[in-house]
Amino acid sequence: MLSSSEKLMQINPNDFLPQRRPLPVIVLADVSGSMEGEKIATLNAALAEMLQKFQTVHDTRSHIHTAIITFGSNAQQILNLCPVERVKLPTLNAAGTTAMGAAFDIALRMLQDEQQMPKRSYLPSLVLVSDGQPNDNWEEALQKLLDSERGKQAVRLALGIGTGSDCDFDVLKRFVNHPEIPVVRATEVSKLMDFFRFVSMSVMARSTARNPNSNNNLPLHMLDNDDLVFD
Question: Could you tell me the domains of the chain?
Fold first, then answer.
């Protein structure tokens, strides 16, 4: 029979800590042929930096989980939703057209999959990055995403790379669909890094907030400068 001191030694203090709730971050990344070269290289660097920042967050309320969906000629989930400390970031390569609607379909399935995203999860952040115009049936797919329970409540952020003639900013505005959250326009490729720093700070602010489900935690002041032009 164990003594009282031996029983105490068998107790794991972590068993008494509150279980952290997942805070999902899903990136929808354009990898069409127009992203080839500096754009895709910068996007890879920006994602790596974002994940490094996420891994510095240690909070008792939330636990950041990340997934990546890419879309070129087709869409695929190249990174399953998992805790950031377990992420092995794949290298993105650019080729093909812009199947954005197919990416919306995958995102919707993820939001509805309780194996990947349990009911106890905080509201997800959906981050869309594109430099072009979708060439598939994106409107119906986007509407289904926005009409879904988690999709309509998600924190949705979007970056368009290039000018109005390069990228369809109206599509991105419909994706964000929030009066206080702008669609960011990066007229220079280097601004990709600035956008993902804003994403990082947004998620980190939510993760440590009293209410991580609130949009009030977004550091929108980061966008009000010369580094990023936004609509």
Answer: 20-230 (3.40.50.410)
